[in-house]
Amino acid sequence: MELFLQTLANALIQSGTYALASAGLALAVGVLHIVNFAHGEFLMVGAFVAYWLSVLAGIDPIASLVPAGAVMFAASGAIYHASIRRVLLAPELNALLLTFGIGITLQNLAILVFGATPRVVHTAYQLTVVTLGPVSVGVAPLVTLVVSVTLLAGMYAVLYRTGVGKSIRAVAQNRTGAHLVGLDVDRIYLLTFGIASALAAIAGSMVLVRIGASPHMGFGFVLKAFAIIVMAGLGNLTGVLWASLVLATAEAFVRTYVPGGGGAAEAVFFLLIFFTLVWRSWRTA
Amino acid sequence: MRWVGPTVVVAALLVPLIPAGGYQQYVVQVATFVLINAAAALAWDIQARTGQLSLAPAAFFGLGAYAYTMAALRGVPLPVAFLLGPLVAGAVSLGLGVVTLRLHGLYFAIATLAFAEVVKVIFKELPLDLTGGAVGLTAPPLLGGHQTGLYYLGLCVLLLVVAASLAIRHSRLHYAFTAIRQGELTARVLGVPVVRTKLLAFALSAALTGMVGAYATSRLFFVIPEDTFGIGLSVTALATAIFGGVYTTAGPVLGAIILRSLEEGLRLVLREGYLAVYGVILMLVILYLPGGLVSLWNRRSRDAAGGD
Amino acid sequence: MRTLAVAFVVVALLAMAGTEGMAQREQVRIGISLPLTGPASASGKAAEAGYRLALDEINKAGGVLGRRLQIFIEDDGNLPAKAVPIFTKFVTVDRVHAITGIFGSAVGVSIVGPAKLHEPLIAMLGAASPLVERGFEGYKYLFHYHPWAYHNMEAVFSFMEFVRTGTGASTIAMLYEDGPFGSAGIGDTRAELIKRGFDVPFMESFKSGSGDFTALLSRAKRHPVDVLFWIGFDADALPIAVQSREVGFKPRLIFGTPASWPVGYEGNPVARDVAGMAGWTSASPLPASKEFVKKYQAKYGGLTEEYMAPMGFVTLTTLAAAMNKAGTTDRDRVAAELARTDADTPLGKLRFKPSRLSPSVYQGFDSDLWMVFQFREGRRVPVWPKSMAAGPLAWRWR
């Protein structure tokens, strides 16, 4: 029973990381229809910003959420302006190749400047553990969970309860129509892409505490993030939370209870996604 | 434009004979990898023409590679083992194709990606004496490892893929593919046998990719789940195709030639950080040549969806 | 358009001829293939530093055969697809007299084919997989400096027995990354530990870099584990240490064998008393090592803990020495001299013997290369073997 509860706790905690890492992508892909292959590298940028702030100025990574997000927001604005804006009207494939190129460039610049070795930071709460009966979880991942839920809820609130959100949704639904009713489509894209990228960076600074920062870290996250947002359904932001939870739970239980499950958990993750997608496609016949 | 194709083929035939002095073998090596990239990219493109953007090429490449290796290690004559590659890949793809018929766009892409990842893990976890597990297997080389012979074999593989691509292009299948890509519902209404066509594209693309996988193994002598089924393969194939120009025959091939040569050239010149430059070039090309490299030639038809 | 194509081909060929220039016939040339990009680049760059340091020393002492030694360092990214053309280029274009480098096992296997075609002299710096050893069976010109995977495991077994002797520890939990590095012979490793009287109730694989170990570690908690033994990469070091604490898993010793550790790990309290295996540390008391460290500091202005740096240094130094002693670049004579190497290197005594699985291959370092250290007070303190120990084994977690 103890193990069962601990596994549930582990799953919940891990889902927080997954959801946070996927939130920005959900926005970029689901709302902007930009297949952002560089999402993982944006996450990496956030992790490095937080790393250097911690090492050089002693700023805690949790406090670095804001600067990391801000840096990426600004950087993405420049990236958007210089490149993404021009492929929005081109076939979707072009955005794919473009963001792929951006990702490669960012990753290799990071390697050039920082070297390939991962870097870790020390935080006061890195080893602090919260115990509730038989279950114990770390404070850092718990905070990640809280942050991700808050941000996703916040994103939902902005999109569905504010004027800006309505404009964003309008552009997502029909770019031409939105333009026709007088919305500044370009500015809205810029803003939304900025938020999506900032979210990735925020995820990065949280990941730094528990795993570390390395130029190669983005790849693993972007793969799973794509899978999660697609499983949640494109455009379905709250779906990201439950998709993350379902997948993290499956992984945790397979790893904990199935002998040899360590290796199988990856397969289970993707099998779940595969079956969900296929099942849904046949159901809406 | 009609002279381009034959010229390139003749040039390709002559590559091992280029009087590049000491560079000859090196050039042949690089050229062989260009052939592999080109064939994989073109095979991916064939399926992409029906609007199915697959991220499973790695899975079929790997299945082809493993089918060849496992058969060859069990004493199956090498040519037969080689043919097993496309057979296995094609067969599996039919199953996958049927199951994913109703998926489109990013959903389809992620489903194929999930499939590829699952296949990778399966091969990692299978018993060691069956598939070598995570450590992999060494594969016996075709043609005894003869470099130039292997180059020509690779050229044959590429030409086969090119032939498939051209055959489709110059048949009614081209219209069927394009119709499905531009609107499946409309295509169905127009009488296009959508299911059959999509499955055909899937199986053909997968079988060809499987053949490339079987061939590539003779270059690397080694299959291992992490790399052979690695998503890098899929991403390279589609990036190459887009870079060169999708929905064309010349595009993926040209893309492979340019990209691979670029990478080698950059690496020789810039020993470090060359990949960053590579990334920038990818970006620049797609920004200024939305139709890919081939659009440089098709000044008339700027429409990227037009095809060659 | 046609002129553009021709121009492109010309430019490409020129670029390839480029900076290295057509090989100058007088000099001795050695080709070095290393991962300078990609996940293995930390090791590759360390090796490069060692090679370049050796080059300086060699040329300062008069070079090879009276002329300056010339090296060609190429980045293979630890990928067979890059390594094979590089190997071919070394042999056919640069016409090198020997090839060294080769860090990863996949690369090692992939060059078997081209090697057998041209039969160059190879001084292999890395590669631990037996697949490489068997691949080169019958090859007469391979000098394999790095220990094979079974040597690494032998060192682990000896260390475990040392731990048991000192502390009575007997239960080991094993975590290994699911790629070739972690999985190679893992079943045999466990069987051997059990044969030596250890209890291994838990052995699981994980995906390196995924950063999520809570589920596996929670399961490990169910057993009275003395030693958590993990085989993975630098990216896994922090999560394993941190998440063990998170789920309340408290082995008496965490012992990991990644090839390198993350930057900043030493100074992190999380790392306290975590044990690692290294081929070398900069604090090694060996005279040859102190010399090496001094020279390294003079050239690069800092220290390194990567054992690939002295490994690269040793490889090139011994290769050049053998060529000088042989008085020629003739493969057979150089091989004969190299085989007679009996040197005191920064990594310990180097003597070649026939490799266990492929006797024609010359094997250099073996399990004696390895030492175990613990992170303490921001440093790596060797604790095993006794001859290298600078402190006692800390046995503290509980």
Supply the number of structural domains of chain C. 2
Q: Give the strand tally of chain A.
A: 2
Count all strands of chain C and give the number.
16
Q: Write the H/E string of chain C, N to C.
A: HEHEHEHHEHEHEHHEHEHEEHHHEEEEEE
Radius of gyration of chain A: 19 Å
Distance between the termini of chain C: 74 Å
Distance between the termini of chain A: 42 Å
User: Which range best describes the helical content of chain A: under 10%, 10-25%, 25-40%, 40-55%, 55-70% or over 70%?
Assistant: over 70%
**Separate helix tally of chain C:** 14
The portion of residues assigned to helices of chain C is 40-55%
Mean pLDDT of chain C: 89
Main sheet summary of chain A: 2 strands, antiparallel
Q: Supply the CATH architecture of the largest domain in chain C.
A: 3-Layer(aba) Sandwich
Oligomerization = heterotrimer
Largest sheet data of chain C: 7 strands, mixed
Taking pLDDT < 50 over at least 5 consecutive residues as the criterion, the unreliable ranges of chain C are 14-25
Describe this entry's structure for a reader.
The complex is a heterotrimer of chains A (285), B (308) and C (398). By secondary structure, chain A is mostly helical. Chain A has a domain at 19-217. Chain A contains eleven helices and two strands, in the order ααααββααααααα. Chain A has a two-stranded antiparallel ribbon with strand order 1-2. In chain A, helix 1 packs antiparallel against helix 10 (237-257) and helix 9 packs parallel to helix 11 (261-283). Chain A is globular. Chain A starts with a helix and ends with a helix. The mean pLDDT of chain A is 90. Chain B has 308 residues and is mainly α. Chain B is 71% helix and 1% strand. Chain B has 14 helices and two strands; from the N terminus they run ααααααβααααβαααα. Chain B has helices at residues 4-14, 24-48, 57-73, 78-99, 105-125, 128-131, 147-169, 172-182, 184-189, 194-220, 225-228, 231-244, 250-269, 274-288; strands at residues 137-138, 222-223. A two-stranded antiparallel ribbon of chain B has the order 1-2. In chain B, helix 2 (24-48) crosses helix 12 and helix 3 (57-73) crosses helix 10 (194-220). The termini of chain B are close together. By secondary structure, chain C is α/β, with parallel strands linked by helices. Chain C folds into two domains: 9-148 and 285-367, Rossmann fold; 150-280 and 371-384, Rossmann fold (3-Layer(aba) Sandwich). Chain C is built from 14 helices and 16 strands. In chain C, the strands form three sheets. Chain C has a seven-stranded mixed β-sheet with strand order 2-1-3-4-5-14-13, with helices on both faces. In chain C, strands 7-6-8-9-10-15-16 form a seven-stranded mixed β-sheet, with helices on both faces. In chain C, strand 13 (353-354) and strand 14 form a beta hairpin. The longest helix of chain C has 20 residues, at 41-60. Chain C starts with a helix and ends in a 14-residue tail after the last strand. The relative contact order of chain C is 0.14.
